[in-house]
Design a protein that fits this description.
The protein has 10 helices and 11 strands. It is of the alpha+beta class. The strands form 4 sheets. Strands 3-4-6-5 form a 4-stranded mixed beta sheet.
Length: 254
Amino acid sequence: MKLYLEMMKKPVFTNKDIAKVYTNEKSGNNYVVKLVREGYVERIRKNLYTCISPETGLPIANKYQIASAITDTSFVSHHTALEYYGVTDQVYYDVYVSSAIRFKEFEYDGYTYKCIVTNHLEGVVRPPMTNGIKVSEIEKTLIDSLKDMDKIAGIEEVISSIELLPALDEKKLLEHLEKIGNQFLYQKIGFVLTQYKKQFNLSKEFFTECKKQAGKSKRYLTKDTKCTTWNKEWKLMIPDNMFYFKNVGEDEFR
């Protein structure tokens, strides 16, 4: 049981970890197969395993630890990161994982792990005492969620999560926006956060920079909801149910 006891120290392990215990690769792989057959270990996907707790009979790895171990660059992102930070009011069974290395979608223990390919690996943190979790920081999570809201969460869900965020660092927001370099994203972030500038103590300079980088294009805020209301300040067509944004503008800075 040497391998089992060693791997119990890691929520998720791979063949590389097994090789540190078994110098004979074939023997190590055969022993893992034996542990899987006997119910001590479960195979999450190819070359990814977790031990089963003898006390609970459940996998010792949680979905955030699994997501963080899928590839060398993978981290918890988008809606799943919002869930990790406790700012969503629902539990979802799709786990969004950003990674520079593409992986095929797979299911394990009732969850579906979905890959979001990205080259933007800055702003990923390893919270202490979490045993392997890598997650996008709050500011990066917000930007990624708004960037991909038509494909993942939807505007209403993102908005409801923003209202529960404890804080935002405008310097970090601008740093992430600059790295991505997308005019529409500046436009979306500036418009949405106008509603929350007092909550997060966002400066006039922050919104000035967003407007400067947003360009002059007129756009629809979202494709997944009907947009029929015009927001002149940000040159956006917005959903009817966001009417409370309409009167929030530069006057509030004066």
